[in-house]
Amino acid sequence: MDKLASCCLRHGALPSSHNYSKPYNAERPTSLPHRPRRRRSIIPVVRCILTNPNTAKGRHSTKPRHADEFSSGFDFEQYLTAHAKSVHEALDRALALPARLEHEPDHHWLIESMRYSVLSGGKRVRPVLAIAACEFVGGDAAAAAPVACAVEMVHAMSLVHDEMPCMDDDALRRGRPSCHAAFGEHAALLAGDALLALAFEHLALGYADAGIVVPAERALRSVAEIANAAGIGGVAAGQLADKACEGRGSRVGVVSLATLEHVHVHKTARLLEAAAVSGAIVGGGTGAEVERVRRYARRVGLLFQVVDDVLDVTRTSVELGKTAGKDLVADKSTYPKLLGGVDKARAYADELLAMAEAELEGVDARRAAPLRQLARFVAYRQN
C-alpha cells in the first residue's frame, strides 16, 4: 500500500494594547475560466483513495456545480464577513495583556508579537469552517467559538514558525513583515510556542468564561483532535516532510505524487479537517455526521493547497501578500509541476471540489449552504 493510502487510513475515513487588526475583505471570489471536464480522473490513485465509497459506486455525482445554483436565500459574503469579525473580536479579547502583567516589559513584547501574528487579517477560513460545521450538525454557532479561536491560534503559530529562517525563510506575510522580521527570531519562536499553549488554554477555559454549555466529553474530544492536527498527526510532521523534499523538485520522479499528497495532507489539510471536525463534535454531531464532515474537510484542505500552488506561479507578491514563486526558488515539488502544468492542477482542484460537495448531498440545503459555499470560496480565491 502506498504512502498516501496508509496515511489516510491512519486517520480513519481519510482520515488591548495596540490593535494590529485591519478590515476584513470578503470580496466574492472570481470564478476561474471555464475548462472542459475530463471524463477520467487525472490522478487515478489519488481519486481512488480520496473518494467516498458511495461516490465510487456512483451514488453521488462528482460534477461541479455553479455557485449561483445554491445562492438563493443565502448570502455567503455576509456570513463570512460576520463570523470573521466575531472571531477577530474574540481573538482580540483573548490576546489582551492581563492587568497583572502591565509592568512587565518582557510580557508586553511577547503579547505584542502574538497579536501582530494573529490580528493581522487573513481569511479566517479555519474558524469559519469550525462554525459552519457546528451549524451543519444542528449546533449553535456559539458552541464553536472556543474551537474557532483555538484553530486560528494554531494556524498563526504554524505560519510564524514556517516563515522563520530555519524553515521557509520568508520575510513577508499578509502584505507586511513576518513576525521574525518585525520582532526578531527569538521573539517569533517564543510567540509561536505561546500561541500554541494559549490555544489549548482557551479551549479548556473558553466555554466556562463565556457561559457556553458544552459537555466536557465533547470539549475533550476537540482538544485531542486539534492537538493531533498540530503535532505528529499534522502540521509538525508535514512541515518536516516538506523540508525533506526541498531541492528535489527539479529531479523528475524523485518526489512522487503520493509523497506530495502525504506532505500536504499533514501540513495543510489536517488542520482544516480538525477545525471542521471539532466544530461538528462540540455541535453534538453523530458519529456518521462527524465522519462526513471529516471527509468533506480533508478534500477542502487539499483543495486549499492545490490552489495555493497555482497562485504561487500565477500571481505576484503584491497580489498574494506573501512572497510569490518561493516554491520554485526552494526547488520544491508542487501540483502544477507534478501534474504537468497549471491547467491540470486546476482540473484536479475541480475534482476535489466536486468530491467535497458530494459529501454534502442528502442534507438540508440550508444547513449545507455555508460549507458548500466555503468550499467554492477556497477553490476560486485569488490570494
Short recap of the structure:
GO terms for molecular function: metal ion binding; prenyltransferase activity. The chain has 383 residues and is mostly helical.
Describe the structure.
With 383 residues, this protein is an all-alpha fold. It has one domain: Orthogonal Bundle (Farnesyl Diphosphate Synthase). It is 62% helix and 1% strand. The chain has 18 helices and two strands. It has a two-stranded antiparallel ribbon. A hairpin with a 2-residue loop joins strand 1 and strand 2. Helix 7 packs antiparallel against helix 9 and helix 7 packs antiparallel against helix 12. The protein is globular. It starts with a helix and ends with a helix. The relative contact order is 0.15. The N terminus is likely disordered.
Helical stretch count? 18
CATH superfamily caption? Farnesyl Diphosphate Synthase
CATH topology: Farnesyl Diphosphate Synthase
Biggest sheet layout: 2 strands, antiparallel
Q: What is the CATH level 1 assignment?
A: Mainly Alpha
Structural shape: globular
Low-confidence residue ranges: 1-71
**Which series of helices and strands comes N to C?**
HHHHHHHEEHHHHHHHHHHH
Q: For the largest sheet, list the strands in their spatial order.
A: 1-2
Strand content: under 5%
Distance from first to last alpha carbon: 36 Å
Structural class: mainly alpha
CATH architecture: Orthogonal Bundle
Overall number of strands: 2
Question: What integer is the average pLDDT?
Answer: 80
Helix content: 55-70%
Q: Rg, please? A: 20 Å
